[in-house]
Amino acid sequence: MSTPTGLSDGAISVEFPAEAADECITHDGILPGEAPWDKRFALHMFRYRQIQSELRTMLWERFPSCVQVDLRAWQEQMRDRIDTWYQSTPLGNDLDAAEQKILETLEVTHRTAIFHLYRPSPNIPSPDGQQGVAMAQAAIKVVELYERYFRRHMLSIYWRSIENIFLAGTGLLLAYAQFPAVREVIDFASLEAHVHTCASLLWGMVERFPSFQGKRDAFDETAKKVLEELRKARTEVETGDFGAGRSTDLDIGPSTFQAGLDDHGGINHGHMDQSDHHHLTAPWLQGVGLDDHLTPFYPSQGDLFSFQDFDIMDFMDNSFVTDSNPDAHFSTR
After folding, report:
1. Which of 6, 120, 160, 230 has its CA 20 to 30 A from that of 275?
2. Dihedral angle at the C-alpha atoms of 77, 81, 83, 87, nearest 10 degrees?
3. Residues of the domain holding 191
């Protein structure tokens, strides 16, 4: 969620866990012997957490003025690391159904990492066209995968899923509006279909996690306004009727991403009961725009939520349940 880390990787001196069965780790050294699958998978996820931590550090933290970093070169290296991580997922021949589902759903973990690598951030606020394409393609795949998992009752940590869907949807809208290269590879009909899928998923997921109703409503209002503006711009381009001061570019301004928001970042729904107000505020969309300094991804200090609505969190970005017990939680060993 791009929040600050509690302890930076540079402050950690403990060695990475050994890739050996626990009984093979002795006072006299590490003996030969492969670790069981659950430990190998745990180590695999620890490496993913290291990738997440580096993404957060490189893209969101301020570097000292004396430090020179080639972020473009780092992005290329990180993309290779993310792909290598996914390709090196530990497999097994005797996995149970829950473990097999975990492996199946690692694809969305992989695509989410790619999305975060290329989305606008404080240190790279203006990605280029090809990075915009990579972000849009990752966002589309995230949406498609979440739709599949949701239909098959494979999700249980709904607050995390809602965050991912919300970011993927707004990221896709931003990429299409801002980058001509994206519009060359994604047609408007496909954009509308994916955005509508995002909205449908958010409605279904918020039924399981009502505290994020405001985020769902913010997406609905924003997506409606953005699609209207894009549709209008496309019509003007096709007819040649741009009006005074209008260009042929489809880029839309910051006011579009403020659709449906009042001056305090809340949803304009007219009169509402005061007790419902905490569900309908959307501070995470304050200041959202398409210029070089504003993106729909910067969390504000007021973007708070409570963990009281669920009782367990595992180290996965997604957790899974069986079709026979859709309300049960899965936790790793």
Report:
1. 160
2. 150
3. 34-60+70-91+98-285
